[in-house]
Amino acid sequence: MSLLELHHVSKNFGSYKAMDNVSFSVDTGRIVALIGPNGAGKSTTMRAITGLMSYKDGEIIFDEKLVSLAKTSSLAKMGNLIEYPSIYPNFTARDHMNYYAMDSKDHADIEELMHLTGIDGEKFGKRKAKKFSLGMKQRLGIAISLIRNPKLVVLDEPMNGLDPQSVRDIRNLIQTLAKKGISFLISSHQLDELQRLADDVVIINKGKILRRDTMADFLAEGKSAVNVQTNDNEKMLAIAKDAGWEATAKDDHVTITVTDGVSAQTVLAKATEAGLEVSDIQTGKTNLEDHLLEVLSTDATRV
């Protein structure tokens, strides 16, 4: 039996189905990405799992116990950071850790946890939470979610407000804890980060689960693409679209889907013919964002 199991769970807001027959599981020590567009049902699903919201049909089982709004005893070993951390403005980081550890006989080592999450430095010290930046509050929220030595941690946008170094630190922390057997269910719009972090992926849209797979297998089925970086990517994108190619601009490059007649050689030839300077060109599989959009596009055509 998996650590967390959802069986045919449904939740309505009036006539709107926020969760429509939702079923998936999270195994011990696995990092699972719950992804989908805005309004897909991610937050509703997480709130139901953490006992913060009732649901209409089905059942949620955590650690072999039923979870519901009325039955939350099983949640003692579940940590969460949903939306915004519950922070008291006049408490320091240490005050928070001591407070949230009070009702737990088996809480984590506070000193170690503060160090692991980076809330023990001089920036925190005796400073009250009302003076914390958004990133500092996120770090504190993650630390709070880990205070009870949970078996499962549910995180909604955990990287929100963090600088690149902090993102890497939190990623390393999550991966380290997963190797020790702690499971994670994470929702984030930072799909490139989830691609690096997650073992498994669950895609939800319009309250329905579209896919459940390992991250590796999901990405492997994506389309091949040519990623090209030039001195004028906007012009490169226009050239690709004029040629009838499926293309998108991403960060510092243009991604062109490989189809019949499209290869790195043909893309390079088009760019050179247009007088563009190509600084980098590579062929590989589409990333998590691209493949998610493919799946959502296919789902939309079935409506």
Automatic annotation (TrEMBL):
Keywords: ATP-binding, Nucleotide-binding, Transport
Keyword DNA damage: no
Top-level taxonomic group: Bacteria
Domain ABC transporter: 4-231
Keyword Heme: no
PROSITE patterns: ABC_TRANSPORTER_1, ABC_TRANSPORTER_2
Classification via Pfam families: ABC_tran
A molecular function GO annotation: ATP hydrolysis activity
InterPro entries on file: AAA+_ATPase (IPR003593), ABC_transporter-like_ATP-bd (IPR003439), ABC_transporter-like_CS (IPR017871), P-loop_NTPase (IPR027417)
PANTHER family: ABC TRANSPORTER, ATP-BINDING PROTEIN (PTHR43335:SF4)
UniProt similarity note: Belongs to the ABC transporter superfamily.
Name used for this protein in its record: ABC-type multidrug transport system, ATPase component
